[in-house]
Structure formats: C-alpha cells, structure tokens
Design a protein that fits this description.
The complex is a heterodimer of chains A (about 220) and B (about 375). Chain A is about 35% helix and about 30% strand. With about 220 residues, chain A is of the alpha/beta class. In chain A, the strands form 2 sheets. Chain A has a 6-stranded mixed sheet. Chain B is an alpha+beta fold. Chain B has 10 helices and 13 strands. The two termini of chain B are about 35 Å apart. Chain B is elongated and about 90 Å long. In chain B, a hairpin with a 2-residue loop joins strand 9 and strand 10. In chain B, the strands form 2 sheets. In chain B, strands 3-4-10-6-8-7 form a 6-stranded mixed beta barrel. A two-stranded antiparallel sheet of chain B has the order 2-11. Classes of the chains: A alpha/beta (about 220), B alpha+beta (about 375). Chains A and B meet through helix 1, helix 2, strand 6 and helix 3 of A and helix 1 and helix 8 of B.
C-alpha cells in the first residue's frame, strides 16, 4: 500500500456557457510522507482547484485521489468531511481563525468536532503551540495576534488531529519577508519531524528553498520544475 | 454548546440585545396570558369550578343561562337517565346589592345571584361561615371578594329594585360570574328575585335556567331524546355560551397568537442574519472537517441558551409585575399556564432557528479557501 497522497490523472471541468473549460488537465502527483512539495503558478492556472480536490473539498470530473492507499474519489459528503477532519490538515490564508476562540480553543474545537476532548489532547495541543512559539499566547484571541502568530496558530490547528496530509494555501500571502520565511520554515520543520505528506500552493518564489520538489501549474497542467 | 457559549461570552453586547428583545416578548406573552386567564376566571369561574360534566338547556337557548327556562321536575327525570350519576338545577340572574339605604356610589355592588338547591354538588365549599340551608331561604353564601366591598359575615343587604333582603352566612372562594361576585341563594329565593314580574316564568312550574349533570359517559343526544325540547351540551360549551365570553377570550387569544408569530419571526430573522454573517467562519470549519451536525448543534444550542435565559427572566419579571399589580386587575397566573407558554416559546425559538440551520448546511466550504477558479 502506497503511503501519502496520490492524485492520478485528475481532470476537472467547469461549465462556461456551452463550452466546458478544463481547470485541471490530467494532473498526476504523488507526495510521500515527510515530503514537502510546492506548487507554483500564475493565478487562474488551476492551483486552487487542485488543492480543493487534493483536500477532499471538491470532486474531480475524472481521475482518482488516493490517501494512504485508500481511494477517496467516490466517498459521500459525510465521509469526505470525516477525511478532512482526520486525515487532512489545512493551512489557509491568514485570518481564517474563528474570531471568538482563543488560541488553545482554536485547536481544541477541531478535537471537539471528532468527539470529546481528552486531557492528553489538551496536552498535545499545548505542546504543539509551544513548539510553534505560542506558549505565551494560549489565551489570546485572534484580534490580539500579529499576522505571523495567527498563521502559526493555523499551522498548529492543521497538525492537531495528527493528519497524514498537510495542505497549505498561500500561507504567507499577507506576511512580510521575515515572517514568511519563519512560517514556511515552521511548516517544513513540522512536516519533516512528524512525517507528513505536504503540499503548499504559493506564488511566493522566496519560499521554494524549504520544499523538496517544486511543481509548476500552467493552464491546468502540472509539471515538475 | 462549546462554540455557542464561547461565542456568547465573547460577544456579550450583541447577544444581550437579542435577549432583551426576547425577554420583552416573553414578558408580554406571560402578562397577556395571565390577563386572559384572569378575565375568563372572572367571567365564568362559577361554571369552571363546578363539578358538572354536562348542562341541559332549553332548546334554542344558544347554551346561555339567561335564555333558557326549564321546569325543575325534570331534574328527577334526568337523574334516571343512563350514565347520569347526579343532576342538579341552577338559576342565575344579575342584581345589585345595596348596603343599607345609602345612595353613595360605593355602596352599590353588582352581583350575580346563583340559585341552587342546598346540598347538591353545585354548592361550593365555604371557606368561612356556614353552608346554605333550605330552612332559611334568605341566608346566602357569597364570593370572598365581597369582603373588599365592605361586606362582613352576618351582614344583611337589600337588593336594588326589590323588596328582598339577603343575609351573608358564609364566604366561598373563586366564584365569579359575568365579571361580578356570585351570591348563592336557595332555589326558592332565587325564583322570588328572578321572576318578580308576573308572567316572567312563562307559566312554567318551578322554573330553573339549566340542569347540571354529572357523569363522564353521558350521551347528550340520549338526554335530549328523553326530555322535551332540550339542548344538552358539555360544560365547556356552556362556558363558551356565556354572553361576551367568546369575544373576550378570543381577543386575548388573537393577541397571543400574533405575539407568538412575531416572536418566531424576530428570533428567526436574528439568527438567520447572524448565520449569514458567519458564512465565512462556517466555511472554514467545514473545510477543516466540521460536519453539518456539529455546526447545527452549535446554532441550536445557542438559540436554546438564549431563549431559555430570556424565558426565565421573562417569568421572573412577570411574577414581579403580578406582585405590584393593583388588586382589582383581573390578573391570574397559573403555574401550568406559565410552563405551557414557556415551552411554546422555546419550541418556537428552536423551530425558527431551523431556517438558519438549513442555510448553514448549504454553505460551501470552498468559499473558505477564498477563491474558486
């Protein structure tokens, strides 16, 4: 059984008037555990569609998605939501935290979605936040955090359920160079130490040094650089 | 509950405004229901508190005491009918009690004279003094509210426009009729008062207004079949037949129904607007794996917490209001009424939030990722 995340011959059509546009055109990619892959490309190239399909948010028109060897192409909405909860960690653009939860609760709410919060879950969440340098911010609310801190909270949130796959969508979009490097470095560090298959969509070329492989998306086609 | 409470604690001002609105609505619902209950008690508590199941009226009397006349001898006949365990006659007439020979306004009191046979199931238990007796037809038992008008045990009062005078020998509780206190007299005395004018008894020997029947399984049609020209109805129907009763309770009920409908919309719209405002948040949470059930519970439990808090505050305010209300106000809170309307309000709140839940389930987690190419 192949570990990590595999997309095989994924094609996604969008209907646009009488024509259909292929946002993704026979895209295949394989990411092994511990591997950090970057996908770059101009806007409109299909990066978001690609990430949505890899993240079980969108169904492909053709092709198959395998997660740890399991084909998730044909699962129901409820099962997909469960996959997203347990197997996939999303790091979205900043400010995607829940505004009325403090830093620790941002992580615990994910645990709650899956059931009860145990004492060890709480310990794990605190350790994760400390690892990411947020030990002193556990009780802070998003509006009291800087952009970098928000994004580090989002990273911790992505890792809290110990998923197999980490997907990052422009995680450094609103950060200055120093913070962008810090955030990308932290993602890379966690991905390596926890052996996750990770994909980062970005158009920030400064960050590619942290990634093992770089793919370029152009007009729905994905090519290794 | 977790998300719901965290959000409430973080946005106290916003949520307390919603609570204030709902408290005001709940408060008004409870006050109106207390007022409606008080009014209907005032109008018909003699009927409501008596231990009868069916009422026999004259045919064509529209279930109204004042339009019905029957001979008392039918009481014995009615008692013989199947399923009838007891029967008793009753008469009613409106009168004015005069304290002494005074002409002052406050010394004239409207009363309802209820004629019954002493010792039947229609005679209410006295809370003070003694019971009616056929040997002393001028001895009466009266509703305890007459004390507030200055009448004491043993007082004798005159009836306005009549030569009859009555002596109070006992007090009874919760006995009002047509919004005025009831005065129970033996049948013979009631006849003297009600049929003082010659011919007003229409030639019926020993007339009464209606015959009350006890017996859970009585078939009204069977009763009407045995007796001539009668119309037998349930006690509830007889209450409805009282002049003005339907109109009065209908008005209150209409206001209550409107109020409940308004509360459904106000709460529903509030929750809906807040849910739409949170589209982005719900999208993020769905993207990281929150199921619709998890988020639905968050919405519903938030509405539950807010409406429960509002209802409890509303109930407390209502009891507070009741405590400072003037004594003459026909306001009567009953625990089961308060509990009943609390449940109705709670159910309405939860049902109205279903619209928001439905909206939330349709939200697309893809929106959280910002853009769909």
């Amino acid at each position: 059984m192949e570990q990590g995340l595999q997309l095989r011959e994924i094609t996604k059509y969008y209907a646009e008037g009488p024509n259909r546009i292929a946002a993704l055109d026979h895209v295949s990619i394989s990411v092994a555990p511990g591997e950090f892959v970057a996908v770059v490309g101009p806007s409109g190239s299909g990066k978001s569609t690609f990430l949505s399909i890899a993240g079980a948010l969108l169904r492909a028109s053709e092709g198959e998605v395998f997660l740890n060897g399991r084909n998730i192409t044909k699962l129901s909405d409820k099962e997909l939501s469960n996959i997203r909860l347990k197997e996939i960690g999303f790091i979205m653009q900043s400010s995607n935290l829940v505004p009325y939860l403090n830093v620790l609760d941002q992580l615990l709410v994910v645990k709650r979605m899956a059931g009860k919060v145990k004492a060890e879950d709480k310990k794990f969440a605190i350790r994760l936040l400390e690892e990411l340098g947020l030990g002193s911010k556990l009780a802070s609310f998003p509006e009291e955090l800087s952009g970098g801190e928000k994004q580090r909270t989002a990273i911790a949130r992505a890792f809290v359920n110990d998923p197999n796959v980490i997907l990052a969508d422009e995680p450094t979009a609103s950060l200055d160079t120093r913070r962008a490097h810090e955030v990308a470095g932290l993602i890379a560090q966690e991905v390596k130490s926890r052996r996750k298959a990770a994909i980062m969509v970005t158009h920030d070329e400064r960050l590619l040094e942290y990634c093992d492989k770089v793919y370029r998306m152009e007009d729905g086609k994905l090519n290794l650089v | 509950m977790f998300l719901a409470m965290k959000e409430i604690m973080r946005n106290k001002t916003r949520f307390s405004m919603i609570v204030i609105i709902f408290v005001l609505i709940a408060w008004l619902v409870f006050i109106l229901s207390g007022l409606g209950n008080g009014l209907s008690t005032l109008a018909a508590s003699v009927f409501k508190n008596m231990d009868a199941d069916y009422v026999v009226f004259q045919q064509g009397s529209q279930s109204s005491m004042s339009k019905s006349l029957l001979p008392e001898q039918w009481v014995a006949e009615a008692e013989q009918l199947p399923d009838v365990s007891a029967a008793a006659p009753m008469g009613s007439t409106m009168a004015t009690a005069l304290k002494g020979q005074s002409n002052r306004n406050e010394d004239k009191v409207d009363i309802a004279i209820i004629g019954i046979q002493p010792g039947t199931f229609l005679e209410p238990p006295v809370v003070e003094g003694e019971r009616l007796s056929s040997d002393h037809p001028n001895n009466v038992i009266v509703n305890v509210t007459m004390k507030d008008e200055g009448f004491r045990l043993g007082d004798t009062f005159q009836l306005d426009g009549s030569t009859e005078s009555l002596t109070i020998v006992g007090f009874v509780k919760d006995q009002t009729y047509n919004h005025v206190p009831a005065v129970f007299t033996p049948m013979a005395e009631w006849r003297k008062i009600a049929f003082a004018a010659p011919g007003s008894d229409k030639g019926i020997a020993d007339p009464v207004n209606a015959i009350m029947l006890q017996g859970k399984n009585i078939d009204p049609r069977a009763v009407d079949g045995k007796l001539t020209d009668t119309d037998t109805v349930t006690r509830a129907k007889a209450v409805q037949g009282m002049p003005g009763y339907k109109e009065e309770s209908g008005t209150i009920l209409m206001m209550l129904v409107f109020l409940l409908a308004i509360s459904a919309f106000v709460l529903g719209v509030f929750t809906y607007v807040m849910t739409i405002q949170k589209t982005h948040q719900f999208g993020i949470m769905k993207a990281i794996g929150a199921r619709n059930g998890f988020l639905s519970r968050a919405i519903m439990s938030q509405v539950l917490v807010l409406s429960l808090a509002s209802i409890v505050i509303g109930v407390l305010l209502t009891y507070g209001t009741a405590a400072i209300m003037p004594k003459g106000m026909p306001f009567k809170l009953e625990t089961n009424l308060v509990v009943g309307y609390s449940i109705v309000l709670l159910v309405i709140a939860l049902l109205s939030s279903l619209v928001s839940v439905r909206r939330m389930t349709k939200m697309d987690p893809l929106q959280a990722l910002g853009r769909v190419e």
